[in-house]
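stuck on this:

***
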Amino acid sequence: MTFVLATQNAHKLFEVQKILAELIGEEVEVKMPADFGYTEDVEEDGLTFSENALIKADAIYKALKMPVIADDSGLCVDALLGAPGIYSARYGGEHGNDAKNNAKLLFELRDKEDRTARFVSAIAFVSDTHRFTVEGEVKGEILHEARGQGGFGYDPLFYYAPKGKTLAELSAEEKNEVSHRYNGLCRLVEKLKEENLL
């Protein structure tokens, strides 16, 4: 079975391929739209993670007519009323600049005692017969300084208490067992099985 993952991010592709192979079996294959010649940027103008995931999935399904999985995810910090939220990737003013995003997050939290946060992943699935979204999350708190070399994005600041580490200090295998994307993909697989799509 082949899915198209609505991303140009190799980190995300690798993570999703690994998780789905574990949940479904090695026969599952995850490709990027660029593998099929689709390289357009889809404008994500939704107001929620789920809306943005569906916007991406719809656009790529329309172009490629293949089952599409789209993930829209980000960090929601309680003391910042859910920010950076859907703007997580460009919070620091430059899309995908992890250093700037992390620096702004620490600045915004400089005088906050409550540092609880959660990573949220909304995953959309669109095919010729189905269109739905599911969500996964992982709860933690934001540290005062970065720890760890793994992961990407806000992982070095996100402390996950059950493991006693930041997500950036976990191995790829450990992170995949607890991450918001893992939890979302578990729900996706459950839903696909319920709908007799697997």
Observations:
- The CA atoms of residues 142 and 158 lie 5 Å apart.
- The chain has one domain: 2-194.
- The longest strand covers residues 131-142.
